[in-house]
Amino acid sequence: MKILAVESSCDETAVAVVEDGRHVLSDAIASQVDIHALYGGVVPEIASRKHVEVIAALAEQALREAGCTRKDIDAVAVTYAPGLIGAVLVGLSFAKSLAFALGVPLIPVHHVRGHIAANYLAFPELEPPFLALAISGGNTLIVDVRDYTDMEILGATRDDAAGECFDKAARVLGLPYPGGKPMDELAQGSSGGVYHLPQAHVDGAELDMSFSGLKTAVVNLAHHAQQVGEPLDRAALARDFAQAVSDALVPRVMEAARRSGRKVIAAAGGVAANSLIRRDLEQACAQAGCRLYLPPLRLCGDNGAMIGAQGYYEYQAGHTAGMDLNAYATRDIGE
Ligand code: KG4
User: Fold this and answer.
1) Residue-wise burial string across 198-220, b where 16 or more C-beta atoms lie within 10 A, e elsewhere
2) Atom 8 in ligand 1: which residue has the minimum CA distance?
3) Which residue intervals of the chain bear CATH 3.30.420.40?
């Protein structure tokens, strides 16, 4: 079954053709990062307009690169939530029109389910059940993936997402948007241990996380150093910050594994590209006897192929939508 998949929830327009949920025939992406970098973050209105400009040509490119024509497409999958509402609407409207014109089913895909499904593309042997640590610019979740379309949130951030926190910290360190990758690179120049950064705990919900205090602490540290003219060890701060984020994530996902009895963990989302978090996950999983799946870096960030992968399993479960499908800025992964 060939699915044409559309993703436009943030600042990447992406269209892919995926066969049977596991084989990527094409994966076309148009990134808007350079434009948003001028503003230090994603400007939603600009994101929507850029999606409109490129999406039709990108779909043609995806078909061409897959060696397909429109007639070969059996269904259209699309991110319908969560994301920047105007941005999601562009991809959704395009996908609806295409499914209608081709007379094929329309499959709604939750963006974070897509991130998790990126693992199916990289690891043919991976099947549910497993635990997923989904860490991206907009979401930070520990998810029990009971089956391909049956998921339960075990832990979540109460405020900022881990990626958002990386991006804000990077900004005060003078790094370009999106800041996760440059922060990661800067951190590699230090062994850290210089700055004491806070760790948050949510009473009665030990698997939940909070990153806003950590973000504020880095902002305050940087501003204070600037005001009193103290030199800032930027590499050490980047390293200590990454360690603080990892210390918030890794022990919690391991605790979730202990509580749920799951022995397989898969990472997902842009922040799963972080070298320190990957290293800490590897060490913790080795120690706990868990099998760890870390998707290759190109599948961590937003892409269309992951929507095609999840779309296949949504279709198998009978999850298709009519032309009244709406876009949602927020939506529980379990819905
Ligand atoms: O998954 P993604 O591409 O988009 C969303 O669905 O949100 O994630 C983007 C986020 C950004 O916040 C970016 O700074 C972060 O992933 N990121 C990283 C790294 N690479 C990307 N964060 C930490 N370390 C990295 N190496």
Assistant:
1) eebeeeeeebbbbbebbbebbee
2) 270
3) 2-116+301-316, 128-298
Query: Is the distance from the beta carbon of residue 166 to the nearest atom of ligand 1 less than 6 Å?
Result: yes
Strand partners for 96 = none
**Beta bridge pairs of residue 264:** 291
State which fold the 128-298 domain adopts.
Nucleotidyltransferase; domain 5 (3.30.420)
CATH number belonging to domain 2-116+301-316: 3.30.420.40
Mind listing the pLDDT tens digit for each residue in 215-246? 999 999 999 999 999 999 999 999 999 999 99
pLDDT of residue 109: 98
Would you say the CB of residue 271 lies under 6 angstroms from ligand 1? Answer: yes
Mean pLDDT, the chain, rounded, equals 97
CB of 114 shorter than 6 A to ligand 1: no
Cα separation, 135 vs 211, in Å, equals 12
Instruction: Name the residue with tokens 């706990």.
Output: 288
Helices 275-288 and 234-260: angle between axes, nearest 10 degrees: 30
- Does the beta carbon of 136 lie inside 6 Å of ligand 1? yes
Closest-CA residue, ligand 1 atom 14, reads 180
d(C-alpha 166, C-alpha 137), whole Å: 9
Nearest CA to ligand 1 atom 3: 301
pTM (two decimals): 0.97
Nearest atom within ligand 1 for CA of residue 161 = 12
- Ligand 1 pocket test, pick from 181, 245, 297 with the greatest ligand atom count within 8 Å of Cβ, gives 181
- 166, 175, 177, 239: which to mutate for ligand 1, most atoms within 8 A of CB? 166
